[in-house]
Amino acid sequence: VFLKSNLGGTLVINRNLNLNRDLHLKNIYNITIEGLRDSDSTRSEFASTINLLEGANSIIFEQFNKLKIKNLKIVDQKGVRDNIKTLEFFNGYDINIDNISISTNSGINSKAISLGRGTGATCVFLGQISNISTYQENGGEAIRSNETNTSLTFSKCYARGGSFTMNGTVYSTMINCATDGSKTNGYLFKGSSNGYLNSFSLVSCGAEVAQLSAIKVESGVVGLSVIGGFHSGANKRIVDTDASYATQIGSLITTEI
Fold first, then answer.
1. Distance spanning both ends of the chain, measured CA to CA
2. pTM for the complete prediction?
3. Strand, coil or helix: what is 107?
4. Max Cα separation, the chain?
5. In angstroms, rounded to a whole number, what is the distance separating the alpha carbons of residues 166 and 111?
6. SS3 labels along 16-78
7. Where are the extended beta strands (E) located within the chain?
8. pLDDT by residue (tens digit) across 132-142?
9. From CA 98, how far away is CA 121, in angstroms rounded?
């Protein structure tokens, strides 16, 4: 409340927090929320952790502008629950999410990070999402970006046990991202009647040990490029596509419906 009344500022989480209910933050402008890193620079551990206890499933950010979230570790080990969104962002723009670790054992339809709710009024645009590490013991989507989201860059995101889903997202890029041990596909690209996936690039990314495909392309995709090669290791299939048109030129693969 103090930061909002003063039109912005920084909230530092300098100790572990235990949440026993959902945290819903709304109407946020020019605010940074950050945790502390371990004082030993040779270690990568976080100095502050947010634990989601019984009754707490989600941290939600709604209606934001110039929002920065960084240096946070979030742990949710309450047992299998489905359709959980650990971190959710919608109806906002100009967002920077950096150096976030999420560990959860919720169900396979859950999302570690969810962006937008599939309409123009609830979309997320102008964003940088980087240095994300997720561990989903029971599978799920590490990052899901929904219809009408635009101008997003995902870089150095690593999903263990989970996958990346880009659903109707446009003018956006994934760079140096990887999945490992997804219970489904490594990457899923698709669109819907609310919005096609268009002008999307996958740059120097990879997937290993996906139980289905490294990359799956469903209907509603009208412009997807894979640039700089794609590393596929021990996946059941490399590419599974519903596309009616696909070409490969060197290390550039373009798939269109």
1. 47
2. 0.91
3. coil
4. 55
5. 12
6. CEEECCCEEEEEEEEEEEEECECCCCCCCCECCEEEECCCCCCEEEEEEEEEEEEEEEEEECC
7. 9-13, 17-19, 23-35, 49-52, 59-76, 85-104, 111-115, 124-136, 141-145, 150-160, 163-167, 170-175, 178-180, 187-190, 198-208, 213-217, 224-233, 237-241, 245-249, 252-256
8. 999 999 999 99
9. 25
**For residue 80, what pLDDT band results from cuts at 50, 70 and 90?**
confident
User: Whole-angstrom Cα distance, residue 182 to residue 244?
Assistant: 26
Q: How confident is the model at residue 254 (pLDDT cuts 50, 70, 90)?
A: very low
Average pLDDT, the chain: 87
The answer to whether the Cα torsion of 119, 183, 96, 22 is positive or negative is: positive
What residues does 15 pair with on adjacent strands? none
H-run or E-run covering 3: helix 2-5
User: What are the residues facing 73 on neighbouring strands?
Assistant: 49, 101
Alpha-carbon separation of residue 65 from 27, 108, 110, 232 (angstroms): 8, 31, 26, 37
d(CA 173, CA 44): 26
Q: Rounded distance, CA 104 to CA 135, Å?
A: 6
Name the 3-class secondary structure at 169. Answer: coil
For residue 4, which amino acid is it? Answer: K
